[in-house]
Amino acid sequence: MKTIFKSFLAFAVLIFSLAFTNVNAQTSPKIKNVVLVHGAFADGSGWQGLYKVLTKKGYNVTIVQNPLSSLEDDVQATNLALDKQDGPTILVGHSWGGTVITEAGNHPKVAALVYVAALQPDNGENSVQWLQTAPPAPENGVLPPDEKGIAYYDKAKFHAGFAGDLSKEQADFMYASQGAFHAQGFLTPITKAAWRTKPSYGIVATEDKSIVPSIQYAMYKRSNTKITEIKGSHVVFISQPEKVANVIVEASK
Length: 253
Description:
Elements: H1 2-27, E1 33-37, H2 48-56, E2 60-64, H3 71-83, E3 89-94, H4 96-104, E4 110-116, H5 127-131, E5 150-151, H6 155-162, H7 168-176, E6 181-182, E7 200-205, H8 213-222, E8 226-230, H9 236-239, H10 241-252
Parallel strand pairs: 1-2, 1-3, 3-4, 4-7, 7-8
Antiparallel strand pairs: 5-6
Helix pairs in contact: 2-10, 3-4, 6-7
Keywords: Signal
Protein name: Pimeloyl-ACP methyl ester carboxylesterase
Organism: Flavobacterium nitrogenifigens
């Protein structure tokens, strides 16, 4: 009887151990590295809130400072950040950063892509093609390129058009810290779209006035990207960092 009881106990322990291991595998992130790529009319400082959320969850977060001088230069800056990662990485892009990660996402360390209110062109397509597929919102303040070919966002429209769910103080700081974006980048085509071979997740900012939601839906549906809707402005990653982090966490599993 003792032998039977011991065998039953050993079997029960084995079953419990397997069950615990399985639950742990389903809940623990497999990927701990995250690289964040900002868009035009912005810089890396906008990621601070999301950085805090992700690092508290145990992620290793790197923020790319795009030179915004060309698509090639921004891809190179992103690749330098990816080179430094110690393993598989989730690559996240906001707005113009979506175009950047579409090209840079071919890096061998990139395991998945996360598009945050972002552009997502295909091979041979450029960013401006998609921006022209729907009328711009009245609040949109992207100005024509100046004599140096640099495009800025209209100061009078920045709050409503770019960061409508942030305080005016936050929006003013973002306006003051925006990079000098060379508009030629919008016209540069993608050579190899990484979303064709890598798992992709896309966040639609439902109150976006810079890239209207219908454009985001069209791109994400075309590429079979997994879509998450978040009520927020173009900078939804600032106003809703926890919700954006949840998508990144999902991608890491």
